[in-house]
Amino acid sequence: MNNINILLIDDEKEFIETLGERLELRQYSSKIAENGETGINMVKEESFDIVILDLMMPGLNGLDTLKQIKAIDKNLPVILLTGHGSTKDGTKGMDMGAFDFLMKPLDINDLIKKIELALK
Amino acid sequence: MFKKIINIIFFFKKKPRNHYAILKRNIIIIMMLITILPLAAMIIINFFQYRSHLKSQIIAPLYAMAEKTRHSFELFWEQRLAIIRFISTAYSFEVLSNEQNIKKILISLKKEGEGFIDISLINNQGELVSYAGPYSLLGKNYSEQVSFQETQIKGQYISNVFLGYRKYPHIVIAVQHLADNGKNWILRATIDTNFFDNLISSMGLPRQTDAFLMSKDKILQTNSLYYGNTLEKCLLQLPKVNFRSNSIEGTDNENRDIIIISSAFSMADYILVIVQPQSVALKSWYALKTDMLIIFLMSITIIIFAILKMTTIMVKRIKTSDEQRENVLSELQHAQKLSSIGRLAAGVAHEINNPLAIINEKAGLMSDLIGFAKEFNKKSKFIDLTNSILNSVVRCRKITHRLLGFSKRIDIKIESINMNHIINEVLDFLKKDILYRKIDTNLILSDSLVSIQSDHGQIQQILVNLLTNAFAAVEDYGLIEIKTKNIKNRGIRVTISDNGCGIPNNVIKNIFDPFFSTKKDKGTGLGLSITYGIIKKLGGKISVDSKIGKGSIFTFELPEKPNDLEMINE
């Protein structure tokens, strides 16, 4: 596939690394940030095609991170991940400009579909 | 102190099984005591007061009668004594000593006064000097006799009754005369006692009432109706004897209760006795007593009946309200149990969800790597294994998501909704299932159903849960009926019934508990408990009724408005 650069932001290293590896297997290039601040800095420094952001993180939480990313690049699509099983935070994030949200644990095929949809 | 007693009496809490029986018993005892005791006291006091009052009323005329009769007797004796006294004054001893003269006097006496039988003159030595009458008593000496001695001392004398030679009862009266020369002599007459009986029969005695004369040593002087004939001993116990009328109550030899009135004479050794049975004297009293007893018994019966009835009703009400309270309490406890289980479950689910996500990714990566790798030994086996892990993760995910959803305090969005619309919407979701399984849905939706203030999404969830269960319960071609209706206390009722397999009794009582499922690995055991939680949050209630083999009926009610919005959004 073409060179799509994805930024993964999640405090759960084991999860995010494995997810990154799986995306690479599917011809996506991915970078990892283990917290919101790092993620925001990476967005400032580098150009990404899409951001995948976990909502529940220690320190700067998902929604605040989303706000700042959107402040940097309004058009950068963001897909949210939520572990709550509730759609509440997800829809809130969508109101704030996120493209969509997915619940953890993820189905990788759903994620790929959403990414493709976001990049269209 | 008083409060303590009341508490002891009314609130036995140690033995709840007998609680109501004891409460009932105590109320009955207390009510009986406070009603019957004063009534009984009043009746008893009335009884005695009225009795003594009535008695004095009854005895008064008897007293009057006794006094009058005594007076008649005394008058009679006084007259006879006066006649004899006159003769002794009018004639000298010498004149009277002449037998011819004294006989003449007796003849005129018999003409004038009744009852005179004979007359005799006795000198101060007690010797009979002259005599006129039916017996030959001349020369007889009276000096040793009581009558002579009494006359010598008192100047006059009236004897008790005795039988003379003719065996006929009579009495003796005697008068002493003191002559101018200092000599004294006695004029003595015998009188028969017919007049006694005449006087007594003229008293006008009431029925069963007896009157007679007796001496102070209790020898009858006249015939008595019940207590013997003249000169027999009378065994009645008399009141205190003095010169007034006195009364006493007693029993006679036939064990009759009687009232005895006695009156003693001053001029002779006689007592007038009137005896009346109490049954006669207190006849009206006995009638009244019976009346009072009947009234008392009737009142007691009514009181007891009223107390028993009232207490039964009262205790029943207390029992019902206690039961209601207990029901509310147990519902509350159930709700609390659900809520705490929910919180616990959410905590666990949340903690598990993250590692689950990692397992998912790791297994996913394994699957990816195997998938992208060239053919190797047992490749397909590895693919199966990783897929199995991924499928299990999907199952776990379902559970954790539902658990999280179960406890989530979702913001409830209250809007005006039409239940009939939502039912049609939900049936639209499930259209595929209905068509595929050829399930017959029968909708009986009320046209006049009121709109309620509630949460659209939550109600959808309720209906989906209940209908999914109903679909699971019925066979293909089964029937599901949905009914809506307004209810009295402002709100609506939705009934979803199916003709499916039904729910066993041991299942029905746990049916709203979380994790309670009979579908084994197909269900999470959360559907109905979530439904229950939502309905509670919306201020409604849900109940279930089921018969094995016949089907189940789930009924839920929702209020027109949720009662307490704050509680809901808490």
Write the layout of secondary structure elements.
The complex is a heterodimer of chains A (120) and B (570).
Chain A: E1 5-9, H1 13-25, E2 29-33, H2 36-45, E3 50-54, H3 62-72, E4 78-82, H4 88-95, E5 100-103, H5 108-119
Parallel strand pairs in A: 1-2, 1-3, 3-4, 4-5
Chain B: H1 2-10, H2 19-90, H3 93-97, H4 99-112, E1 116-123, E2 128-132, H5 146-154, E3 156-158, E4 162-163, E5 169-178, E6 184-192, H6 194-201, E7 210-215, E8 245-251, E9 257-264, E10 270-277, H7 278-281, H8 283-372, H9 379-407, E11 414-417, H10 419-429, H11 431-437, E12 440-444, E13 452-455, H12 456-473, E14 479-487, E15 491-498, H13 505-508, H14 527-537, E16 541-547, E17 551-559, H15 565-569
Word description of this protein:
The complex is a heterodimer of chains A (120) and B (570). With 120 residues, chain A is of the alpha/beta class. In chain A, 45% of the residues lie in helices and 20% in strands. Chain A has a 5-stranded parallel β-sheet with strand order 2-1-3-4-5, with helices on both faces. The longest helix of chain A is centred in the first third of the chain and has 13 residues, at 13-25. The model of chain A has no long low-confidence stretch (mean pLDDT 89). Chain B is an alpha+beta fold. Chain B has 15 helices and 17 strands. Chain B has helices at residues 2-10, 19-90, 93-97, 99-112, 146-154, 194-201, 278-281, 283-372, 379-407, 419-429, 431-437, 456-473, 505-508, 527-537, 565-569; strands at residues 116-123, 128-132, 156-158, 162-163, 169-178, 184-192, 210-215, 245-251, 257-264, 270-277, 414-417, 440-444, 452-455, 479-487, 491-498, 541-547, 551-559. In chain B, 27% of the residues are buried. Chains A and B meet through helix 1 of A and helix 8 and helix 9 of B.
